[in-house]
Amino acid sequence: MIIYFSGTGNSLAVGRKISAALNDKIIPLVEAVNQDLSSEQTIGLVYPSYDFNVPPAVRMLLPKLNINKEAYVFIVIACGAQAGNSIWTIRRVLREKGINLAYSNKIRVPDNSAIVFSRNPNDQVWKFERFAPRLEKIIDDLKNKKRALHYNSWSFMGWIMGQPKLEKKLIGSFRPASNQEKCIGCGICTKVCPMNNISLSETKKAVVGDNCTACLSCLHFCPQQAIEVGGKETIKNRQYHHPQVQVKEMMLR
Fold first, then answer.
1. HSE (CB half, 13 Å, CA atoms) of 121?
2. 171: pLDDT confidence band, cut at 50, 70 and 90?
């Protein structure tokens, strides 16, 4: 079973390639927590890194998974550059459940958060071709159930970023808001939000709640550029999603 968490489809696309190669099923993390996975002999976790660490949603939901302690468990991080403590943290969480991590690695993909810094994530699509051989090597390792922990070392920067007060501040700085004048009430943001954190008001306008994990799925998939961060206008040609993933595939409800 391949379990993924994805804001713009990068981790979903990576997970799909792995699941196809292993001839295994793939499921979003928010659904996996409600399933009995104790009979699965292989469990793969594919997710991004946020601020040199694990997305808060992944860290919160992972302990709820019912995983066979004898399963071959692996992690693949889909990240813009640095994995930070993304693997180290989850390995610790798994250990607390009595589960040993067998394999870990990372693959570089366009950085979803680049748009927050007035950069265009679409300028990073060159990563797909450059790192394709690396992904094939990772897949080959997984086919052979190789045991190797890459990018598993503790990161000081990841530790700093993961301090509760700072993490809360960082998540807050990336927290999106709905521009009520632009919002047309289509409801796409409510369906792609993995935290079920966005709803429509009585006037059919998007309202963002407090349970945000900063995946920016709502921002990137909004057809009206009505979801903004820090009051900055969202520019259409800077919105990003994996080219092989469509919005309907990101809808969790």
1. 27
2. low
Q: What's the CATH code, domain 2-161?
A: 3.40.50.360
User: What is the rounded CA–CA span in Å between residue 12 and residue 97?
Assistant: 25
- Other CB atoms within a 10 A radius of the CB of residue 178 amount to 21
Average pLDDT score, the chain: 92
CA nearest to 79, candidates 34, 46, 57, 42: 46
For helices 10-22 and 132-143, the axis angle rounded to 10 degrees is: 40
At residue 185, the pLDDT reads: 96
Span 83-107, average pLDDT? 93
Fold of 173-250: Alpha-Beta Plaits (3.30.70)
CB 4 within 8 A of CB 12: yes
> Alpha helix locations (H) across 144-242?
156-161, 164-173, 188-192, 217-221
Domain range annotation of the chain: 2-161, 173-250
The β-bridge partners of 28 are 4
Across 179-191, average pLDDT: 96
pTM of the model: 0.92
Closest CA to 235 of 109, 122, 80, 110: 122
